[in-house]
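Methods: example folding runs. The two proteins below were folded one after another, and each record is reproduced exactly as written to the output file, sequence line first and structure-token line second.
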Amino acid sequence: MAHEGPGTITGALADAGVAVRTVRLDRDEPVPSADDLGGLVVMGGPMGVHDEAGHWWIGPERDLLRRSVAAGLPVLGVCLGAQQLAAALGAEVTTGPVEEVGAGRVELTAQGRRDPVLGPEYRGLSGTDVPCLQWHRDTFALPDGSVHLAATRMFPHQAFRVGGRVYGFQFHVEVDETLAAGWRPLLPPGVTLPAAAVARVADVGRRVLGRFVDVALAPSGVSA
């Protein structure tokens, strides 16, 4: 969706000299083949994993994620993209009791604190949490064999890693002020995105996403 675009992910890839192709499935652009990709990033949207009747591309996108993981490609799923990734790997996606939306933080698990993308020493920061933005109600179980990386009290499955180069983030760290400006008119009543919070997320997000690109470009990523 237009208001859930790649944000600072594009800059992190461009800084590494990676060519980026944006595919808008919501505009009926064709789903690419995993054979034609060097990596895959799947973003969010207001629809859900189970809304295939109204969105033809949800099933094919999930199949693309499955094939990309099987091919050993680096993969990042964000929000709906993380739910799609979890479902593609056989995990259940369900609707939570409440909506989680606005500026906040995710707490890193013990394995998350050692993770080369999310861990504080790799982000050049102290502390065991990551500032982020949230906007979801659906959630996922952890795929078999995955590494649990982050949690919140309301939604304990916030991030996971599969193998060395496949990540799912329920939360958003790719949002900068430009992307946030597109979100604000659509937010639920009473929810705000203060400029200072967005700036903090964007700063940390650039470090996280830069590390993801580093891991994605490494020959074998990190060990599980």
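Second run, written to the same file directly after the first:
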Amino acid sequence: MSGTEELLRFHFRVLPLYTRNAQKYVQNHAMAMYPLLATRQGADDTLLLQAIDELIDYYKYSESKLARRLLWLATFMRRADTVLPKHKHKVEERLSMLNDLLEHDPYVQQQRALGKAEGKAEGEIETLQKVVVNTVIDRFPALVELAQQRIKQIERPEAFYLLISQLNTAPDESTARFLLTPPMA
């Protein structure tokens, strides 16, 4: 839009990939479509292995782009019902030979690092939740159920550290109850 004038309109169509013939895309060397070949009719091990070889040749000067295309192809193939298991197995064997390439792809490394960071953060949260409950068990056993409810609402480690410190220095149960009662919205 430019002001009130319509300059461009898109008319989208749904293309059911499973009704398209994979062979035509390979015959036309439609490289951009190769990662999706396994979602199409007629995709078998011979065709997919040919596509992998063509991708390797086409992206020989860009390992990162090649790794990404192979990762997509492998992902779609694992999820597709259009490729028979025996054909999938042959293609997976070929892809496993290229695993080193995938392992060094920046995107794959970034996703792996992100997963590790998320796992570490989740582990820290779980540990801090246990510390809160154990602190309450030791100091204010009557408030354990309230503590178990409260820890489910806290998401940041800093908030846990503050709560643990406050519970350790709370002079009595009523103060601890106040600390474990969620703030009003």
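Comment on the second run: The chain has a mean pLDDT of 88.
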